[in-house]
Amino acid sequence: MMSKKLFIQTLGCAMNVRDSEHIIAELSQKDDYTLTEDMSEADLILINTCSVREKPVHKLFSEVGAFEKAKKPGAKIGVCGCTASHLGSEIFKRAPYVDFVLGARNVSKISTAVKTPKFISTDINYDESDYAFGEFRGSPFKSYINISIGCDKKCTYCIVPHTRGDEISIPLNLILLEAQKAADRGAKEIFLLGQNVNNYGKRFSSAHEKIDFSDLLERLSEIDGIERIRFTSPHPLHMDDKFLNVFANNPKICKSMHMPLQSGNTKVLREMKRGYTKEWFLDRALKLRELCPDVSISTDIIVAFPGETDAEFQDTMDVLEKVRFEQVFSFKYSPRPLTKAAEFTNQIPDDIASQRLTRLQSHHNEILDEIVAKQNGKIFDVYFEELRANGAVAGRSFNNFLVQVQGSEELLGKTLKVRITNPKRMVLYGELVE
Ligand code: 5AD
Ligand code: SF4
Which ligand lies nearest to the CA atom of residue 151 in the structure? Predict the structure, then answer.
């Protein structure tokens, strides 16, 4: 019999990318599906959704509407991921042609879901932390590895604890096994995933040796064949000295750190329940720059959180100026269902939010232009992973700059020295050093 075809669209974060890999693995091993990029020939169309802001939720309904029009007769449509968790059966009401709804953290039930009419499972406390998923990897060059699921923080703007449940760490032996598998298949990079990776070891679902994130990093770095270790997202609150020292001194840990600031103002941070102050954040970021001069620091910023005054927003601009982030992901605050901040009565009008976002982004672009200009002439070790248009190949420097050179697939999977000759904001263009 010919295998069935699966089309899958993934929105949201790296956690979702990994969940989609698990879905593909389960369906190909248990139900004989193979992937297709052509929706019209698919027997099963899946969308793995994100809820973090309102926009991706709207996108879900426009996308499934388009699926319904484009699909071949008899093909099924499934909605997975964070929005499946928080909207649940409402998805059937708004889009009756959807065949099943499978929340984040329920991925191991996918094979049952596809066979059960109107299947729905959105238990955010479902524990699949030691479920042995089948193997599927979207990239031969790097392996995503979940190290924890869920989130125990209760940031007042954030829906994730309501879609991914409580935080549970994955047992060390399973993580080591995944990393060894990565090394065995020749993937030189592992990318550790969790909502608060540097809170690793706080809680396991069964008895486990005491271990923290720094210890985990050291253990993983002992695996031969693994040359690069990345992770996301760490929380600024848990960036203790031990962690910063291991980060700076372990030669396999890539020198790029995501430090989600959210706001630079201590009062706003308190209302967000972030657990740190402006001073703590600055202290950690500047200490990191001191310990690790080559580090790139990226961040997430929310502007116009309820009640944010212009003076408070100015503190965010101040942190931007002092830390000089290499990359900033910035968002207008978006009220989310089930969150505390959505009930705050001092919501900020959209025009003010837009102005702040523009001010933030244009100031960051100025900073970025200076950072980028300084890369000219530098030589980076680039791990090539991606073919690009017009005979170009791209990869990442150890400190996470996207670097592109002219070349062909024989560069893929290799780590080579590149001299930057034409640095731009999004890509540093360069040439191989002979
Ligand atoms: N509104 C705007 N941005 C949000 N984020 C999370 N929740 C919200 C929200 N309600 C942002 C945060 C987080 C990133 C993944 O998305 O900056 O770090
Ligand atoms: Fe989106 Fe957050 Fe869910 Fe990731 S965890 S898919 S960012 S809502």
Answer: 2
Phi-psi region of 39 (alpha: psi -120 to 50; beta: other; left: phi over 0): alpha
Domain closes at, from 372, 398, 419: 372
In a domain, 396, yes or no: yes
Is 131 domain-assigned? Answer: no
Ligand 2: atom nearest CA of 159 is: 8
Give yes or no: residues 100 and 149 share one domain: no
Binding-site residues, ligand 2, Cβ < 6 A = 12-13, 15-16, 50-52, 81-82, 160, 163-164
User: Whose C-alpha lies nearest to ligand 2, atom 6?
Assistant: 50
Count the residues in the chain: 434
Cβ atoms of 175 and 131 within 8 Å: the answer is: no
82 is in an annotated binding site: yes
Q: Ligand 1, residues 300, 319, 329: which to mutate, most atoms within 8 A of Cβ?
A: 300
118, 21, 108: which is closest to 79 by C-alpha? 118
d(CA 73, ligand 2 centre) in Å? 31
Give the distance (Å) from ligand 1 centre to CA of residue 158.
Answer: 6
Ligand whose nearest atom lies closest to the CA of 347: 1
Residue with tokens 């699949």: 128
CA dihedral 369, 372, 376, 379 (to 10 degrees): 180
The token pair that represents 173 in the structure block = 């032996």
CATH code of the domain covering residue 190: 3.80.30.20
Q: Annotated binding residue at 155?
A: yes
Kindly list the averaged pLDDT for each block of 10 residues, start to end, along the chain of length 434. 90 94 96 96 97 89 95 97 95 97 96 97 91 92 96 96 94 96 97 97 94 98 98 97 98 98 98 98 98 98 98 98 98 96 97 98 98 98 96 98 97 98 98 93
> Which ligand 1 atom is nearest residue 260's CA?
18
How many whole angstroms separate alpha carbon 173 and alpha carbon 188? 20
Nearest atom within ligand 1 for CA of residue 336: 10
User: Domain of 107?
Assistant: 4-121
